[in-house]
Amino acid sequence: MTALESHQPDISSESSANYENCETVKETIRSGTPQAAATPSNSTDANGSGPVTPEVNIIRRKLNGYVGFANLPKQWHRKSIRRGFNFNFFIVGESGLGKSTLVNTLFNRELYPQKEVRDPSAEKQTNVKIETVSADIEENGVKLHLTVIDAPGFGDAINNSDSWEPIIEEINSRFDQYLEAETKINRTTIIDNRVHSLVYFIEPTGHSLKPLDITFMKKVHTKVNLIPVIAKSDTLTEEEIADFKQRILDDINTQGINIFRPPTYEKDDEETILSCQELMSRIPFAVVGSTDEVSGKDGNNVRGRAYPWGIIEVDNEDHCDFVRLRQLLIRDYLEELRETTAKKLYENYRTEKLRNMGIEQDHSVFKEFDPLVKQQEEKTLHEAKLAKMEAEMKSVFDQKVTEKEKKLQKSEAELFSRHKEMKEKLLKQVRLLEEKKTALENSSRNMLDNPSQQKSRKRIF
């Protein structure tokens, strides 16, 4: 039995008897039904006192047997098995962090061949390229078309400015292809090639996120379901991993980066909620990838890596978070990743794209129209307009009054200054005249006091 079949209800012919006594379905017949229409809405009672309210009739119906709509999940399961699923995810990180190995470990097959040891003297690739690997895999009758997108060369250059541009262009290009397929007149089955998830590999430095990590995640977190992982976590101790995870989460929260978090719903059981919480506590996942089998402590062969100090098992939760990453990415939340991409990330991109093209949604097309509400809205808008005009007029009036007051104050100051200046001139003239008067009086008095001087002057003349 597949994982999908385990969640379907087992409904047999014997269980159909359990549906004979189903709960009562109540249908309220409103004024628009034939029963209510038989009574005119504007009719009056016998006394002519007023309109008669239509009587509401309630018809009670009982399901006499098994109808069959409970079998819809089985129909959907059968259809999904026939059509199959597709999953596209991006892997991004610097070279040498084990991206190809982790992908092979996730799907338990050699999607990426073993890479040859590169000559150290060979020139290292510095430009970012986009490479795609696709495979059709099947498990317990469930078909999956897998597409893995890689960006070799990312973060390998000395100057990594704009190294994220090819990745963003690839994500947008896949959105554009899907949008173009949706807008065709004759639409066939649309192939979903959108990026459903992006796994970002963080170098296990043990310190914090590098500026390139922060910049890249801020560029793509609104376009894809971002899942950060710590690559090659076997190079760190448990304490270093715990501290490193906390620093990464602090940087993510400080920078406002959105990462994919598995949702919980009201009808989820307690086990599902606890599993989701445990999954969230492991983010970012400290992973180790390996497709090689080594001999474990009990003698059984396990996937892992052998070191002089011991063995690290890939599928052991006490050794790394690989199992939790696979649970989030494939086993429990693959369909959630696809749905989030389709209903949230793609819709946001589509809305922004159409808005930039000048296409706006007219929300009044399918909006119910109520004349009273419309009149009240227009009245409110008119009152707001009048209040705005009144405020503007008051502002203009206050401005003019202020300007007039300033002008009057300036004129008053000028008049006061001129008055003061003229007054000073008059006082100066008065003092001058008084001085002349005093001098004249003194000279006259002197002449009267010295008659001999006056006689001598007469002789001279």
From TrEMBL:
Stretches assigned to the Septin-type G domain: 83-356
GO molecular function: GTP binding
Bias (Polar residues): 9-21, 30-47, 440-454
Cellular component terms (Gene Ontology): cellular bud neck; septin complex
Main location: other
InterPro entries: G_SEPTIN_dom (IPR030379), P-loop_NTPase (IPR027417), Septin (IPR016491)
Superkingdom of this protein's organism: Eukaryota
One Pfam family it belongs to: Septin
Subcellular location(s) per record: Bud neck
Region (Disordered) location: 1-53, 438-461
Family label: Belongs to the TRAFAC class TrmE-Era-EngA-EngB-Septin-like GTPase superfamily. Septin GTPase family.
Protein name, as recorded: Septin
